[in-house]
Amino acid sequence: MRTFRPFALVVVVVAFGQQYAGSVFVLALCYGIVTAGMAVQIGFSQQIVFSQCVFMGFGAYGVAMLNTHLGLASLLATPVVMAAAGLAALVLGAVVTRASGLALAVATLMLPLIATGYISSAGYLGGSVGAPLTGNLWPGSSTQSIAIGNGLVTVAVLGLVVLAATRILSSDIGLELYVLGVDEPTAAAMGVRTPRRRLELFVLGSVFAALGGAVYAGTQLFVPATLASPTAELALLMMLFVGGRGPGPVTGPAAGRAGRARPTAGGRPRAGPGPGRRGRTSPRWPPGRSSSHPTAW
Amino acid sequence: VKFGQLVIAGLVTGSIYAVFAVCVSVWYRVSNILNLAVGDFAMLGALGVDDLVRVRNWPLPAAIASTLVVVAAFGYVYDRVVLHLAQDGRRVHEGIVITFFFTFALSFFIDGVAKVLFGTDVHAAPALWSGRSLSLLSGLHLERAGLLVLACAVICGSMFWLYIRYTLGGKAMEASGENALGARIVGIDTQSYRRIIFTGTAVLAAVFGIIESPITGYTYLSGATISLTGFIAAAYGGFRQPGRALVAGLVIGITEALLGGYVSAEYGDTVLYAILAALVLAWPRGLGFESAVSG
């Protein structure tokens, strides 16, 4: 049954690509690319960060700038922006992933606020209005071919992202990430290089978010200034939660299917072999919360 | 004079942040849920009173009383229906879903309703204490609305502190958040405490919205920003310590005003958030973030 899902997406894109419903569907797929990364980072590995919208904005604005200022096609600009986002995430992640738990969550929550403040004052990014694009993701000759081409490229990108995430989770690295999410000291004691894995996880989530942003810009032809706002981050989190577990740790959130979300007691994984049953989208909060009694004030 | 004036302005802004941070902290303490809709209740209070007075020509006291009753009733019903099902029902939600999801959804809902009811323009409730700004020492001035906000923040903060520190209800409330099952076993009605605090903080937020709106003005989207600032200040109090959250709110407000005055009016907030992030990363334990820095 799973084999037919990508084909179902293709059929929907081809059938409704030109209609309003089709454009909404493609928009949803763009967010699916971001939430697939979030499913690995937040849902599976419990790295609670609030910076995905910033990297989504990075990807979207990056493509918009390359497209409008340098005349680079959106499809070609996408890998350039992804590489730049990876580099930025590496530098930023080297600093922020030194913290964990609540400190990491709050520190990364500042990033959308910083980004929003910067974007709304930066004239070359369109200020508080946003940035338009001149070229579609798929440079077709007619409106129909552009709409369908955009949709098919988005489906392909989402498929690749889900495939990559699923492969990572089913590998030994996935096991390490899982243990890292359950109990970091235990993971360290078992020989997992926790600082490195945390950094890799941050970079992975950020690059997926940037990719989602790049595809968003190429298909929507406009980047609103609110894309990197804290509200957008919370909306992304809601999409992740609504997607829930679904059939696996990645495809559920990516599809955002509320009807399939089946939480289990205590947010613990369901018993059974295979990486697909280890996925979680209900991390502990606050992360790293102590069991000690707090003082009154 | 400039420094003093900025500190006064920062104290007023900070006291607003502080009150919302206390609202977030107190309710988190009792329910383990972060109230991301607290700012929306403030917006409802401000725009509701403005609408009744300006558009429907109601007298101000009646408009305030009606708005607060509506906010209280709405908070009560939301807790009774949605939060009760989410936290006490058969399919109990846990983790980050229950922590964020339901109040954030409420925030979206209130924003949508407010847009329909009040439109998209900036409005404010009528000033409760109108007149010229008050002159202080050395040529410093303080808006009357600002003084009202400061006074209310001190009174509300003190009342919460006294309630938690010295009353049996405060201890029971604390126990409800620490271990709901254990609290129920010893006879504490955890649901009632959650409901009372949720409704109470909603009304308190609405009151502050009414008092504060003449200074800044509100739109239907103002609530999200207020909630976020309260969330950040509450985070510096570890979400569970309203006193630290109150201090954090005041410090954030004063720092914001000083940065706006001395560094850049345009990028003051951006610099502030960068400083806050750097502080968290450099000194997590000292600021009350319980998680350790490693690596």
Q: Give the fraction of residues assigned to helices of chain B.
A: over 70%
Rg of chain A, alpha carbons: 19 Å
**Percent of residues in beta strands of chain B:** under 5%
Distance between the termini of chain A: 55 Å
Describe what you observe in this structure.
The complex is a heterodimer of chains A (297) and B (295). By secondary structure, chain A is an all-alpha fold. Chain A has helices at residues 4-16, 20-44, 52-69, 74-96, 101-121, 143-170, 172-182, 184-189, 194-220, 230-243, 251-255; strands at 130-132, 222-224. A two-stranded antiparallel ribbon of chain A has the order 1-2. The longest helix of chain A has 28 residues, at 143-170. Chain A is globular, with a radius of gyration of 19 Å. In chain A, 56% of the residues are buried. Residues 257-279 and 288-297 of chain A have low confidence and may be disordered. Chain B is mainly alpha-helical. Chain B is built from eleven helices and two strands. Chain B has helices at 2-31, 38-55, 60-88, 95-118, 144-166, 168-178, 180-185, 190-216, 222-236, 242-262, 268-282; strands at residues 134-135, 141-142. The N and C termini of chain B lie far apart (46 Å). The relative contact order of chain B is 0.21. The model of chain B is unreliable at 291-295 (pLDDT under 50). The chains are: A mainly alpha (297), B mainly alpha (295). Chains A and B meet through helix 5, helix 9 and helix 10 of A and helix 4, helix 5, helix 6, helix 9 and helix 10 of B.
